[in-house]
Design a protein that fits this description.
Elements (H helix, E strand, L loop, with lengths): L4 E3 L3 E46 L3 E5 L2 E3 L5 E5 L3 E5 L2 E3 L4 E13 L2 E3 L3 E2 L2 E2 L1 E13 L2 E3 L4 E6 L2 E5 L2 E4 L3 E6 L3 E5 L1 E5 L4 E4 L21 E4 L9 E3 L20
Parallel strand pairs: 1-2, 2-3, 2-4, 2-5, 3-6, 4-7, 5-8, 6-8, 7-9, 8-12, 9-13, 12-14, 12-15, 13-16, 14-17, 15-18, 16-19, 17-20, 19-21, 20-22
Antiparallel strand pairs: 10-11
Length: about 250
């Protein structure tokens, strides 16, 4: 399909098997694109949905060089299973979350998430991980409200990501979440890295996040007058920061 505008009640397009390939599509509905099984590959165009711009329950969604426009009540992109591959995707004013992962896998390069809003007075996060895994590279997270990345369980890999966290901090890892960080820059008023809530390795003789190079290349840049900062963790636990990590409180990088 090419140069098609589809506005549906339930969704703009649903993939329950087979394969959908589209270029410069505009999909709108309660959910712009739903992938349950099979494959969907979209290049160009834009997605919008009252609940989410795109939802992946299974199968594979590949989105390249397109925009996901909010606001949506749940997220710009919601993934509960399967896999989503993003390249050059811009998620604008998505609602309470730019990318929400409750299972499955999301991999992205050159992704921009900007302008996350509050939900019932609670600041949203540019990326939320409840289960599953996230891998982002060469991406930007802006105006995140709460946290730039908030993971409660699951796995997070960030490489060359510029993140502007809100009140909750830049990268927040809770409840067994693990992270591999390489060459990222975190700015904002909250802590660059916040750990807590029963993370992996919380025995007294283990690092909270362990292993050589597990957390590498994290820099923090803070505005003048900002309070707090650095790495924050439950005081009864230890945190292993290795491979040349910088937590820089200077106002200039």
């Amino acid at each position: 399909a090419r140069d098609l505008r589809a506005v549906g009640g339930g969704c703009g397009a649903r993939v329950s098997g087979g394969a959908l390939e589209g270029a410069d599509l505009a999909l709108d509905g309660d959910v712009g694109l739903v992938v349950e099984r099979g494959e969907a590959t979209l290049v160009g165009g834009h997605l919008h949905g009252a609940l989410s711009g795109a939802t992946v329950h299974g199968g594979t969604a590949t989105l390249r060089h397109l925009a996901v426009d909010g606001p949506s009540r749940e997220a710009g992109l919601a993934v509960a299973g399967g896999a989503a591959h993003l390249e050059g995707v811009v998620i604008r004013s998505p609602g309470p979350a730019g990318i929400a992962i409750a299972g499955g896998r999301v991999e992205g390069a050159a992704v921009v998430v900007a302008g996350v809003s509050e939900e019932q007075g609670i600041p949203g996060a540019c990326v939320q991980v409840r289960r599953g895994s996230l891998a982002l590279s060469a991406s930007t997270l802006l105006r995140c409200g709460g946290a730039a990345v908030e993971a409660s369980g699951g796995e997070v890999r960030l490489s060359s990501v510029d993140a502007s966290g809100g009140a909750a901090g830049g990268i927040v890892l809770l409840d067994g979440a693990t992270a591999v960080l390489d060459g990222n820059l975190v700015t904002g008023h909250g802590p660059a890295l916040a750990l807590g809530g029963g993370l992996a390795g919380d025995r007294a003789d283990e690092p909270l996040v362990g292993g050589p190079g597990v957390l590498g290349g994290l820099r923090e840049r803070r505005p003048p007058g900002a309070r707090g900062g650095g790495a924050r963790a439950d005081p009864v636990r230890r945190v292993s920061l290795t491979r040349g990590v910088r937590l820089d409180k200077k106002t200039r990088p």
